[in-house]
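tool=predict chain=A
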Amino acid sequence: MALWDGNRITLLQSGEQYFPALVAAIDQALSEVHLESYIYANDATGQAVGQALIRAAARGVQVRLLLDGYGARLFPRALADALSGAGVAVLFFRPEPTTWRFRRYRLRRMHRKLAVIDARVAFVGGINIIDDLNVSGGYARRYDYAVRVEGPLLQDIYSAVRRVWWLVSWSRIGRRPPYSPPLPALADPVGSQRAEFLQRDNLKRRREIEEAYLAAIASARSAILIANAYFLPGRRFRQALVDAAARGVSVELVLQGRTDHPLFQLATRALYRYFLECGVKIYEYHVSELHAKAAVVDDRWATVGSSNIDPFSLLLAREANVAVYDPAFVEQLRTSLKQAMAAGAHPIERQAWSQVSWYQRFASWAVYGLVRLLMGVLGLAARE
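tool=predict ok
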């Protein structure tokens, strides 16, 4: 991890702010576009981003689109052909030969959502290339975040996207794209914010994101606020939150109330009673699907990115977050989260939750144990 001063980090809330900024940056590209996404849907948003990529390729820009082979398994062949035909290089990270045959490496996914344009501006967050209107929720937008990055931090982000692109391209024997030298990153100071780029991979950075969270939590003195879509922390993470609450720190968790994975939510709820009895406050966001992976600690640390706090993100997938050490940014993110909580989050009351029936608690713990066991077994198998 490297801390860089002199950055300008712009917070983008949900697709309403993110996609116009992303398309505008692609439309201004002169030399190179890198775009990574776990999911790429063939909807209005996917078409808009795709057309921006095609326009860039038509200007002679080198455009590289990297999608996860499982998350984007429904990516239509017609769209892939249209992009490739226009000059966009499209690759898949560990493509799945079939959805019916299990492979032990299936959970080793590329879950990052990154973009780098001309090595001068980058985007990091949790937002897939997908229309963020949650139709089943009455047209309320999925709640998520990304950041626009300018400044010295670009060096680390650009290096990361190029590295994974070339790892994937070199695995395609006989179909390797021609090598192109890296652009000089526009890394001059442009602001006053200190930040670092956090990664999780399967080599030297297996626990970088988790350790950054744990360090921030351990040093907290007044307030911790975590908004996370899929929250199933391990023992160390749970203990860190409980220890912070015991020190008098206000610890608040904002989790999914409306979910696309009911079994995962059931497993998460197994932890509610323990946290509530230890002084940790829990809120469930119900207005739409909470997809955020964001946190603020005191007035000095904040993070936005793709990493959930669960075994998939912390132990198996490739993830990317930005951590920002800047009071103004921290306050902006905290204010945004608090507004979302006031508008659509319900507090989970300790007394009411303690009265949940024994069979509901048993079901939650059974699913929790099953999820942790499966993730552990599959994670160990994937390390072979």
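The chain has two domains: 4-193, 197-382. The CA atoms of residues 26 and 93 lie 22 Å apart.
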